């Protein structure tokens, strides 16, 4: 998309002016922030298998909305970005152990996760939707209509989508998958009726497979805030990230990223 590379120089200037002073105050920096400063790099943990959020290109490069957001964050800190990909359910444990400095990977903020790590945001609001080829599923508008034995759903292992099915759709059949491409293949091969996932992924899959015959149930089945996860023991790092996100959102950069990766802005009013 033309003009997008200039976004990084814009935000670097912005963030240095607004929150860069905090980075220079090493005497008061907490453990996590000091580690980032000493190394000169921000280590991002992300799944690398969520289309348009964070996914690998054919050349192996990891790109997407979440990666661009992390790159803006690193630019604001004046450090380089290093990306570590791993299965989704390993991301927050890696953050707790200090193997990564931040997790940005379409992570839903919930009380259980927030007991272990801190969250900043949301930088996006989402909800559950279904990608399907089945006419019956395509017409669903209420969660209760999915809770029948005929419903066969795939969901990412360790995700809130999987938990959603287990708790709210006990009569449905759930198949766990390790990545979204695997889930899409199962839908395409009629091994499941649909892939239950988050709204941005639904948008991305329809964009990625325009001739597949996939349809999405866009009457969102839940409300889910998507946040930036950071260690919970560094108040300065938390404050810096809060200010960073406020400024990036305030000048419209999050909307620019959404248009780049999903073809449209994503807002709480999406249906």
What does this protein look like?
- With about 270 residues, the protein is of the alpha/beta class.
- The strands form four sheets. The protein has a five-stranded mixed sheet, with helices on both faces. It has a three-stranded parallel sheet with strand order 5-1-6, sandwiched between helices.
- Helix 1 crosses helix 4.
- About 5% of the residues have low confidence.
What's this entry about, in short?
The chain folds into two domains: 6-125 and 226-262, Periplasmic binding protein-like II (D-Maltodextrin-Binding Protein, domain 2); 128-217, D-Maltodextrin-Binding Protein, domain 2, CATH 3.40.190. The protein is 40% helix and 22% strand.
Summarize the topology:
Layout: H1 6-18, H2 20-24, H3 31-39, E1 41-46, E2 49-50, E3 54-56, E4 62-63, H4 65-77, E5 80-85, H5 91-97, E6 102-103, H6 111-114, E7 118-126, E8 128-132, H7 135-138, E9 152-156, H8 160-168, E10 173-177, H9 180-188, E11 194-198, H10 199-208, E12 215-217, E13 224-230, H11 235-250, H12 253-262
Parallel strand pairs: 1-5, 1-6, 9-10, 9-11
Antiparallel strand pairs: 2-3, 3-4, 7-13, 8-11, 8-12
């Amino acid at each position: 998309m033309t003009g997008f590379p200039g976004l990084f120089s814009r935000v670097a200037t912005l963030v240095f002016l607004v929150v860069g002073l905090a980075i220079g105050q090493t005497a008061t920096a907490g453990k996590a922030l000091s580690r980032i400063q000493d190394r000169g790099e921000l280590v991002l943990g992300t799944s690398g298998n969520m289309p348009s959020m964070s996914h690998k290109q054919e050349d192996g490069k990891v790109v997407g909305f979440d990666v661009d957001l992390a790159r803006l964050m690193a630019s604001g800190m004046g450090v380089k970005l290093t990306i570590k990909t791993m299965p989704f359910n390993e991301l927050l444990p890696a953050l707790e152990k200090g193997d990564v400095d931040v997790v940005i990977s379409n992570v839903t903020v919930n009380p259980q996760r927030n007991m272990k790590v801190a969250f900043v945001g949301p930088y996006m609001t989402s909800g559950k939707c279904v990608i399907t080829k089945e006419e019956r599923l395509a017409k669903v508008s209420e969660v209760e209509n999915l809770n029948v034995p005929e419903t066969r759903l795939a969901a990412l292992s360790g995700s809130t989508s999987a938990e959603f099915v287990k708790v709210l759709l006990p009569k449905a059949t759930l198949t766990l998958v390790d990545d979204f491409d695997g889930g899409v293949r199962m839908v395409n091969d009629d091994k499941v009726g649909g892939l239950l996932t988050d709204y941005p992924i639904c948008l991305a899959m329809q964009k990625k497979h325009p001739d597949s015959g996939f349809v999405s149930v866009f009457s969102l089945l839940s409300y889910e805030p998507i946040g930036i996860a950071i260690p919970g023991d560094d108040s300065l790092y938390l404050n810096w990230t809060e200010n960073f996100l406020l400024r990036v959102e305030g000048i419209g950069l999050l909307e620019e990223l959404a248009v780049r990766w999903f073809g449209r802005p994503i807002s709480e009013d999406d249906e």
